Amino acid sequence: MSERSSSVPAVSLRGLTKSYGSGDVAPAVAGIDLEIRDGEFFSLLGPSGSGKTTTLRMIAGFEAPTSGQIWLHGEDVTTKPPFDRDVNTVFQDYALFPHMTVAENIAYGLEVRRVPAAERAVRVQEALRMVRLEGYDERRPAQLSGGQRQRVALARALVNRPRVLLLDEPLGALDLKLREEMQVELKAIQAAVGITFVYVTHDQQEALTMSDRLAVFHRGSIVQVGAPAEVYEHPATAFVAGFVGNSNIYPDESARRSFGARGRIAIRPERIRLDKPDDLVAADEGSALGTIASVVFLGAETRYKIALDTGDDLMVAQLNLKESPMESHSAIGRRVRVTWRREHLLSLAENPQAAPA
Ligand code: ADP
Ligand code: MG
């Protein structure tokens, strides 16, 4: 990689805005600034309607921005048509041509661009290898599983050798188990080919698993950008704390009376220890007394709702290392001490725009 390709962002969005409606409708994308590095697996994460697809479509060139700019690898492409941009898109409803073989489906884009037959054949084989579908050339889409069809859709985009691949909820149509397998596989493919992936998802687990970095979208704005662990451990706002992972979120008043903290705070359910009422508390820990109000057994872990004596509720997640579900259920009504390390109380920015939806 040259100096230039590593330091110039693959994608740079500057004050990017898209309004579909008249003035009184909030813009779908409201002035976002974002830099995506070359070779990064970058996710746009947010709830439905937060502006992810609109942003992706503007990067692809399918949608013109109302204002702002799009730069790809140091070039302003804001007014360029899709075919003049070094990007390709994989959609959720990846329609393959049913009457064509896998190889013909993958070769289609090359044929349109009049790539000679010999080179087409080489590149189709290369693309099939990338998605680990060697030997599937002559199959038809109906003879493939959902995961294999998705990989053909990916091969069809990769065969064009774009520098940036845009993916809009590509695993949304797959069932949970297959989706989790494909998450691992997509990430491995991306790492192997080294192409920048811009990946749209509303699934926080998916974004945390796959991304080098991610941007959290809320109502057309980006509220936080960072590596998964950063965003998870240090959510910038109450919205992020609630949307990325589970959190207990407390306004000022509750934060003060239950946690002795100032300002709005959050704490992750898995950061809290469930002890007996007279168990000890260390110097760097905070603690409160309460009663177990409900229990949800989730297999690997159990979630307890604790009614604190201060009047606030607290969700606590415990890994089921020893306790069986029967024992968990008999816990309702038990008096407990909840204990947390003070460093695990997350202070949240004051931002009325960022209240949980
Ligand atoms: P996401 O992908 O995060 O679910 P979208 O970018 O699809 O969000 O949508 C953002 C907002 O823009 C939503 O309020 C949506 O209704 C609106 N929107 C999207 N596409 C159009 C369109 N073609 N015409 C009018 N409004 C649209
Ligand atoms: Mg969308």
What is the compact description of this entry?
This protein is of the alpha+beta class. It has eleven helices and 18 strands.
Explain this structure.
The chain is an alpha+beta fold and 357 residues long. It folds into 2 domains: 233 residues, P-loop containing nucleotide triphosphate hydrolases (Rossmann fold, 3-Layer(aba) Sandwich); 100 residues, RNA polymerase II/Efflux pump adaptor protein, barrel-sandwich hybrid domain (OB fold (Dihydrolipoamide Acetyltransferase, E2P), Beta Barrel). Helices cover 29% and strands 29% of the residues. The strands form 4 sheets. Strands 6-7-8-3-9-10 form a 6-stranded mixed β-sheet, sandwiched between helices. The chain is globular, with a radius of gyration of 24 Å. The C terminus is likely disordered. Magnesium ion binds next to α2. Adenosine-5'-diphosphate binds next to α2.
